[in-house]
Design a protein that fits this description.
Helix content is 34%, strand content 15%. With 128 residues, it is of the alpha+beta class. The longest helix is centred in the C-terminal third of the chain and has 13 residues. It starts with 11 loop residues before the first helix and ends with a strand.
């Protein structure tokens, strides 16, 4: 006699945990890295980053954002990351303009921490 075991579908939390174990994205902590805080304070005063980015048409400027440590091959120190569920050209053009205005670089990566496989990772760091 053969028995088959049916597997229940993974919960969203189980999926995220399994994807993080498999893909090993660097975790994100809330807050801006010191270098970004200094740029913002000097150029924009007390204006929060999400308000500044909204001026550049970045609607997802508060979407799962924070600091991530470790190297991405593009920045050896702390990076600032945004992990939206998606984006459009207008938002990326706005972020590119913000970065150009502040001597920063951006990179887009599919290996996000918030919800691997569903969100993308946008990495910002000072230009080398």
């Amino acid at each position: 006699m053969t028995t088959t075991k049916t597997m229940r579908p993974m919960t969203q939390a189980e999926f995220i945990d399994a994807a993080r174990k498999l893909l090993k994205p660097n975790p994100v902590t809330l807050g801006e890295p010191q270098w970004l805080h200094e740029i913002l304070a000097f150029k924009y005063g007390d204006t929060p980053l999400y308000e500044i980015l909204q001026r550049y048409n970045c609607a997802w400027s508060k979407d799962h954002a924070g600091t991530s440590k470790g190297s991405y091959g593009c920045c050896p120190d702390d990076c600032y990351v945004l992990e939206p569920y998606g984006t459009c050209g207008k938002e990326l053009i706005g972020l590119e303009k913000f970065c150009a205005d502040n001597n920063l670089s951006i990179h887009v990566d599919s290996n996000s921490y918030h919800f691997p496989g569903k969100t993308i990772r946008i990495i910002m760091h000072p230009q080398a």
